[in-house]
Structure to design on (63 residues):
C-alpha cells in the first residue's frame, strides 16, 4: 500500500509531458499559420496580388 501511495505522489516526468504537449501545440499553430495554405501565407498572397494589380493599373493608365 505504501508503494502505491508513493507512486501516486511521484510527479517526476510530469514536466517533460507538459513540455511535450506544449511543443506539439506550438508546432500545430506554426503549421496552421505559416503552412502552404495557412492564414498568414494566404493573406500575404492576397495583399501582394492587390499591390501588383494597383501597380499594373496605374502604370497602364499613365501611358
Amino acid at each position: 500500500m505504501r508503494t502505491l501511495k508513493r507512486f501516486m505522489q511521484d510527479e517526476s516526468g510530469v514536466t517533460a509531458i507538459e513540455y511535450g504537449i506544449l511543443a506539439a501545440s506550438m508546432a500545430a499553430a506554426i503549421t496552421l499559420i505559416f503552412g502552404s495554405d495557412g492564414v498568414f501565407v494566404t493573406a500575404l498572397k492576397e495583399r501582394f496580388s492587390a499591390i501588383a494589380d494597383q501597380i499594373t493599373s496605374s502604370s497602364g493608365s499613365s501611358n
